[in-house]
Specification:
This is Aspartate carbamoyltransferase. By secondary structure, the protein is of the alpha/beta class. Helices cover 38% and strands 14% of the residues. The strands form 2 sheets. A 5-stranded parallel beta sheet has the order 7-6-5-8-9, with helices on one face. Helix 2 packs across helix 11.
Length: 324
């Protein structure tokens, strides 16, 4: 089986193949009939142990547009609440004939465990694990940046070489930030993380990026500014920054957005907390790509499912090699 566990596993060729395939899938989405017969007869299981709006819905839409059968599993309301283990849940899915399992889990490493355990034969796609990685989010973000910064028609085959991307906020708890840092570095972009000192991960100096504590200094040099939510649910209450202080130093409002170059975009993976990391004025502006990112998520996830489930004999060789 082939898997997508981590953006750090992807070579530049893997990433460009996925982004170029997503570009083809987006063209299908522009047609009156959006469906392809490619995965007819295959079964995709969405296995969600943590809440999700965008990721779960877009994987479902992606699988359906490729004509796969989709089974949605949410831990809430399942036998997981009666104490059933990941292994027994996985064996149940295997018995249902799953060809791909898209898993979101609160524990970092759960998708890797599923992919390497031998419990199931299916392809495994990480849809976000703890504070570790969210590789399809990074791919859809790169797809969005490539379209906006390089140009839609020029998108295929181009990458983000030399672009300056700033990621702002609760980096410590953000699987989105970690996946983006790895993928953007692989694609030749330059990443700067901006966060309060208490929300910078230990060992960040090993990451292929810069760190700054001064948002106003970095904004004028950014091609894209990605705002992150403060993940209170993963935080000890003692670490909570006050909303007012956080917004004053790390929030993006209209005045700060005006410091960005004219071509620069504002990104947010969602869910957004308006008034905390981003004002309504910025969230609703033409420069904010949050809704576009969601639409691009469907094309990107179609590309991932298509490549993993036999759309190409040469799909994701490096991801396969690391998890076999
Ligand atoms: N960006 C993202 O992963 O959103 P959801 O948690 O709603 O899936």
């Amino acid at each position: 089986p082939r898997h997508l566990i981590s953006a750090a596993d992807l070579t530049r060729d893997d990433a460009v193949l996925i982004l170029d395939t997503a570009e083809e899938m987006a063209r299908v989405a522009d047609r009156p009939i959006k469906k392809l017969p490619t995965l007819r007869g295959r079964t995709v299981v969405n296995l969600f142990f943590e809440d999700s709006t965008r990721t779960r819905i877009s994987f479902e839409a992606a699988a359906k547009r490729l004509s796969a059968d989709v089974i949605n599993f949410s831990a809430k309301g399942s036998s997981v609440s009666k104490g059933e283990s990941l292994k027994d849940t996985a064996l149940t899915l295997e018995a249902m004939g799953a060809d791909a399992v898209v898993i979101r889990h609160g524990a970092s490493g759960a998708p890797y465990r599923l992919a390497t355990s031998g419990w199931i034969d299916s392809a495994v796609v990480n849809a976000g694990d703890g504070t570790h990685e969210h590789p399809t989010q990074a791919l859809l973000d790169a797809f969005t940046m490539r379209r906006r910064l390089v140009g839609r028609d020029a998108g295929i085959g181009r990458d983000l070489e030399g672009r300056r991307i700033t990621i702002v906020g609760d980096v410590l708890h953000s699987r989105v930030a970690r996946s983006n840092v790895h993928l953007l570095h692989t694609l030749g972009a330059h990443v700067t993380l901006v966060a309060p000192p208490t929300l910078v991960p230990v060992g960040v100096e090993q990451w292929p990026c810069d760190v700054s504590y001064r948002l106003d200094d970095v904004l004028p040099k950014s091609d894209a500014v990605m705002m992150l939510r403060v993940q209170r649910e993963r935080m000890n209450a003692a670490y909570f920054p006050t909303e007012r202080e956080y917004s004053r130093r790390y929030g993006l409002d209209g005045e700060r957005m005006a410091r960005m170059p004219e071509h620069a975009i504002v990104m947010h993976p969602g869910p957004m907390v308006r008034g905390m990391e981003i004002t309504a004025e910025v969230a609703d502006s033409d420069r904010c790509t949050a809704v576009e990112q969601v639409a691009n998520g469907v094309s990107t996830r179609m590309a991932v499912l298509y490549l993993l489930l036999g759309g190409s004999e040469t799909a994701l060789p490096s991801a396969s090699a690391r998890t076999e």
